[in-house]
């Protein structure tokens, strides 16, 4: 009899653990832009690591920089009945219908990094992202101080229609508007990739007679800047000296380039957005309803004065 009761108790205890485990487990779908840059890869790895640390089942989808792939992924997450969805949007527009589908399914959505343009912000809990416009302002302020406001600038834009490209361009141009002797002489998208950065920079330098009258390159991210400095070298110029290079993201390769003197400044964009996103999801499950619609992430400005110290911290 004692053996029977002990067995019954053990079975009940195991069942209670199973129920508790099932009740606490979360399944979250994450639609990522792609893997076009080192920053993006760090971002994805950070979200995966944070999910594992919190015992969250993460369904990850790489959209390969195509919004149609993201919409298919989100629709699949809804069909699977996930507990929440995180979206890092490729572009701002075109999200209203799929976000309405998620809301009808009572699945909360958190936007990270780039923004969405919708006419009803109740379609998502919050957006966790840096201030892209401020990043552009920081980059421009450094350049204007360095050049005393006199500079002919080439611009490598990010993906057309993305909030990162729109915001950084707006912030940079806002500062330039106060410096009449500084101007962007040519601007073209290189889609946030290193290969395109090199290709487009080659084209821009050729159009500018080799680039001898160019003072600086303003790149919307480090990957394009890293590609562009190869093009500058191949044109017979010294990146960082003959042409100043200002950028955004502060990935490790960019910090190394700052130490080497081929990039002058990079404004930090933290890739660690997973933790704050999961925090919001867990708070929502615990009953919180009202969130700020934009949770801002800050970022430092790295130059030759502090890049080496930051690299040492990251190793």
Keywords:
6-stranded mixed β-sheet, 6-stranded parallel β-sheet, elongated, alpha/beta, 315 residues
Mean pLDDT: 92
Residue share in β-strands: 15-25%
Number of helices: 11
- How many beta-strand segments? 12
Strand order of the largest sheet: 2-1-3-4-5-11
The helix content, as a percent range, equals 40-55%
Taking all Cα atoms into account, the compactness measure Rg is 23 Å
Give the termini distance in whole angstroms: 61 Å
Rough shape? elongated
Structural class: alpha/beta
Q: Secondary-structure element order, as H and E?
A: HEHEHEHEEHEHEHEHEHEHEEH
Describe this structure in a few short sentences.
The chain is built from 11 helices and 12 strands.
Walk me through this protein's architecture.
With 315 residues, the chain is of the alpha/beta class. The chain has eleven helices and twelve strands. The chain has helices spanning 2-24, 38-53, 67-80, 96-104, 132-147, 163-176, 194-207, 222-234, 252-260, 274-285, 307-314; strands at residues 26-32, 56-62, 84-87, 109-112, 126-130, 151-157, 182-189, 216-219, 244-249, 265-268, 294-297, 301-302. The strands form two sheets. It has a six-stranded parallel sheet, sandwiched between helices. Strands 7-6-8-9-10-12 form a six-stranded mixed sheet, with helices on both faces. Helix 7 packs across helix 8 (222-234). The longest helix has 23 residues, at 2-24.
